[in-house]
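FAQ: What does the model actually see?

It sees only this:
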Amino acid sequence: MNLAPARLLVAIADSGVFIKIAGRANFSASVDFKTLMRELAARGYRRFTLDLTECAIMDSTFLGVLAGFSLKRPAAAAGHPPIQLLNPNPRIVETFDTMGIASMFEVITGVPPLADYEEAAPTAPASRVELARTSLEAHQTLMEISPANVSKFKDVARFLAEDLKQLESRPEDAPPSE
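And it is asked to produce this:
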């Protein structure tokens, strides 16, 4: 199975930020995606459109990170529009429905994607601790949003919490002090 992370590309337009997610939006892309979204929000961007035209699938970690950002972004409370999903395939739309997060986003179909994307600035590879923490937080978010997700992810969350605890107890894997 190919676990290569999705490519993240960015375009800034008058109407906001477009982020193209090409490939498999899986756990290994989740830390870079979270970092990118936080940086763009910190720069003052409030309108986000995710171009999913070339996104094959989103796993639960990536979905949880996306849902968490949607919940916590300042724009959500200020009456700004929801994050838009441009041209998601039917499988992705079904996954959003199944996870109980579809209402948090606006789906737009049939619109041609932008052509002027640039590769998002690469970040340092995520440590095992960062990946485990991000995955745990993402699954906790999905369980908080929809009680139906608790039965799907409680064992995963328990495993991730135990894994994170073990990883943090090892000095070589511990996150740097801030």
